[in-house]
Amino acid sequence: MSTMERGDVPPDGGDVSPEAGGRPRGESAHHPPEPRTYGDLLGSPQIRRWIQRAVIGLAVGVVLTVLFDLRIGVTAAALVVIYDVVRRARSTSSVAAWQKSSAAERRTEKQLRALERDGYRVLHARAVPRDDEGSSDGRIDHLVIGPSGVYAIDSEKWDKRLPVRTMSHRKLFHGPFNKKEKLDEARWEADQASKTLSGRVGFEVPVQPSVAIYGPAIPWKVMRVRDVDVYSGTRARGYLRGRPKILTETDVQRIYQAAESSLPPKYPGEE
User: 243, 149 in Cβ contact below 8 A?
Assistant: First the structure.
């Protein structure tokens, strides 16, 4: 039996009885501060990666130059570097490594990339300000803005050995644990984002909260529990596709720009 997750709340006695439940990323990326010394420069993961690419490309180029000619060697070296750049871009998270994004977040992010061609914009790991003093205890894993509206997605990895079920669309259980706190948190974060964005753009911007769950089997496609959409993490992209369009391209761009400026990156030192 795995240890209790943070936020797990054992249900009250009568609640445990089984019951079938039927519920624009910006063009400019944020980077860590520029290295100030040669030691910092060599310690940068990005610099080390480029050095590795250059060494491998040079080695391949030298070998093929010896075996064939200089033109083939140079071409092969360039292709090796290009291949590695493309491979890493597809397999790694755009949320920077020092932010420690979870495996669940990276899986959802990978799915959301495919929506960009459909006019969706995505911001990852954004802080949610409170009404008072602008402080923030919340974080939206993925804020999705597109033709069908605005969504706050929370990516969760749960123990696959414990079943997930609902009761009357008001309670969500992971094994014996009541996930009310998680749902309330997701709804609060979406509400705060909605208030912030509406104030910035001058019209109401509803933000639909949702939880994408990885690990245990989810016996439904999408279930709304306590006003939060719950679904299997593997359905994150499908959850957004096929919905009616309610926002224009101009609306999407305005909301995205407002979100980028008013919902700051969660992690310090990202700027």
Answer: yes
